[in-house]
Amino acid sequence: DIIALKLELSxxxxxxKLYGIPVWKTMTDIxxxxxxxFAMSATKTKLEACRFLGLTESNLNTLLYKYxxxxxxxxx
Length: 76
Description:
Layout: H1 2-13, H2 23-42, H3 46-53, H4 57-67, H5 69-72
Helix pairs in contact: 2-3
């Protein structure tokens, strides 16, 4: 339900059209990035995030780099 709501809000802010965006094809990446961002915000350390996600520290660091999550949390 939350994803549907976010998509609806995105369509409205884009003027009612999201043509050309392969939403279905990128759904797995969108979901993984969202869970990764949640894990990083809900835990105090990377080790806690690893335990929460069931990942090794090496896997977590790879994903953090892939999705550029640390930049998301930087204060500007």
